Amino acid sequence: TAGKDRTGILTGLLLDLAGVALDDIAAEYAASNASIDSLIAYLRESGRELPEPDEELRARMSVSDEMMRGFLGLVAKEFGDARGFFTAQGLSEAEMDAVRSGLVDA
Hints:
By secondary structure, the chain is mostly helical. The chain contains seven helices and no strands.
């Protein structure tokens, strides 16, 4: 899916780190569905072989807010929140604060 899933997961984690409400994170994730037709067109125009019909591709590429809620729920269960997740990956408090300050208007 051209990295869309990895991008969405990382974006969800960063938004959680920034203190964005779960409802807003989930809604933003689901909003990516609006770009599926453009993504399919881009992939076809760039020479990528896509054997499935567009309808099947749309179904495979579509996401729901519940997917992000489920993912962040698993993160919360395992790590507490995105800060806990990033701590487990080796990021320091200072590094996470720097990321957060870059994402949030002061």
